[in-house]
Amino acid sequence: MDNRWRDADAADFADDLLQLRVYTSRLLGQDPDLVLHGGGNTSVKINQRNFFSETESLLYVKGSGWDLATIEAAGFPAVKMDVLLKMAQLEHLNDTDMVRLQRTAMIDPAAPNPSVEAILHALIPFTFVDHTHADAVVTLSNTPDGEQILRELYGERMLIFPYVMPGFTLARDIYQRTRDIDWQQCDGIILLHHGVFTFADDARQSYERMIEIVAKAEACIKDKGAMFESDAAIEVPDSEPDILALAAIRRSVSRIRERASLCRLAQDPLSLSFSRQKNLAHIAGQGPLTPDHVIRTKRIPALLNEDPVAAIEGFARAYGYYFEKNNTAGLTCLNPAPCWAVWPGTGTLKFSSTARELGIIDDINRHTMKSILLAEQLGGWCALPEKDIFELEYWELEQAKLKKDKQAAGLQGKIALVTGAASGIGKACVEALLAQGAVVAALDIDPAIETLFAQEAVVGRVCDVTDSAQIQSALRALVTHFGGLDILVSNAGTFPLSARIEELDEDSWDSSISINLTSHQRMLSACIPFLKLGVDPAVVFIASKNVPAPGPGASSYSVAKAGMTQLARVAALELAGDGIRVNTLHPDAVFDTAIWTDEVLEKRARHYGLSVQEYKTKNLLKTEVRSGDVAGLVCALAGSLFARTTGAQIPVDGGNDRVI
Ligand code: ZN
């Protein structure tokens, strides 16, 4: 546990309490062993003049939706202390009303909702209050002798309270427990199975107490001989994972969730080690590290077996029983699909509709698995009882969020593969698919593809689509990373220099046929087993206006694209039984692509006796066709709008009298 306080950095805001609060909050947020993804909260109490020149006592507390790692002053709504303290004295208050009351006591109605732990922060009579869900403390707490170990470790200056549901119940509980205490005799509060509070009138002291407390817990775990095996001690998997099984698991989860879901396999040493534990059913079947993780991970993972799809279905049934058993008040059941799974001996899987959420679940998982493995060496892992976890999972504030849940973007959770993705139509397709919520494997022969789309939702990979081995390895990488394949945009192509048939050399012909035709057959063939396991799978071929209306000098290109169109028609016939739609676009005169160099453009314009501008809009609608227009239509063909269309050929050419 590093103390990240730096005098030089803190000096910049020495006399600004709120800025100091921002500074030490970020120090906490930077350490994933303290807080993860929006977890934890901090506050500072400031006396401030209002518009009427009266001095008000305010609590600036972390606002919901902000992450401690990146929080700014605007992330701390100010709430009137007197109202918060009055609220603590109420006998009963539901959390919806608590949130409403807190809002009425804010000095800026446009600020975010204050943390649900705001009342608790107000009750602690120190300027700075820091709260984390530190792994080491919670790990110790989640063992059979946890409470006793913590009491011995910290002595009388640490208040240690049993777990209580966060929100008003917890605030009320702490109010009653601390009414008569001498706060000067306390260094902090540990809430069992939940986390740690530290406090002081000085920002640095409050922060450093947190670091000391957590460092002490880490040292205690080490002293007791609990340790995580070093990475080198864990062997790599004996065999490559069955990626078709992975795609089937992902489809099963998507069906249960009733929306397309991604799936990511992890086979790093921690995931492998966890998946090889002998008492997996016992340790994985107890509950999360701290209850608020349940919102992201559900209470427990699915445990796969020789029939992973049946295991996923079994999880969903069991989740239904869990809901029925604990539902007391007309609650809305969440989708019963798992958020993660353990595949014994193979690794772990995460499920979500967005790449971002996959990353969050992955982070939470790692901390949970590590804590479980450590706690097992400290007498055994014991999470909170099922009913406490359920209570948080079905918290009224979480249920309210469900009702407000926005309609997901059109292609959210869909997995696409685009070839020729580094420029022109292919690049535009990647961008359009991303904008609609899909994740994409972007393939290109140009090495720039690896860094072109630097974001979680894209895997950029060098792939020569004329090489079957490279196609296979790209598919393996895609399925391992995102879980399957739903949309193939077969776009890679080349436009040979214009040459009449009698002048055309053999290599130029062979090359065009290989890239513009044969590679598309190889790619489609390799993708079909995965598309069969896809969610509403669709294939879009990017052919050309040259198919219905060829031009002189482009025989090798036109013949290859005509062959590709015929391939698409046969594929539409062969794959309809598996629900896979295959459609073809015929773009024309899309000039913002790599194949249209200025040289080619000028030559073609001259050939027709036109200026370049006239040539660009040489169509019935007198409009330019851009790669983004083609990409928009690709998304439409891959989406629900064309759910009942297969085998179609659609021009994207501004209207052409030879095609019509
Ligand atoms: Zn908390």
Q: What percent strand?
A: 5-15%
Using only CA atoms, what is the Rg? Answer: 30 Å
Can you summarize the main beta sheet? 7 strands, mixed
Low-confidence region ranges = none
Strand order of the largest sheet: 3-2-1-4-7-6-5
Task: Summarize the structure in words.
The chain is α/β, with parallel strands linked by helices and 660 residues long. The protein has three domains: 7-223, Class II aldolase/adducin N-terminal domain (L-fuculose-1-phosphate Aldolase), CATH 3.40.225; 243-403, L-fuculose-1-phosphate Aldolase (3-Layer(aba) Sandwich), CATH 3.40.225.10; 415-593 and 625-652, 3-Layer(aba) Sandwich (Rossmann fold). 43% of the residues lie in helices and 14% in strands. The strands form three sheets. A seven-stranded mixed beta sheet has the order 3-2-1-4-7-6-5. Strand 13 (439-444), helix 19 (449-452) and strand 14 form a beta-alpha-beta unit. Zinc ion is lined by residues 131, 133, 166, 194-195. Residues 131, 133, 166, 194-195 line the site of zinc ion.
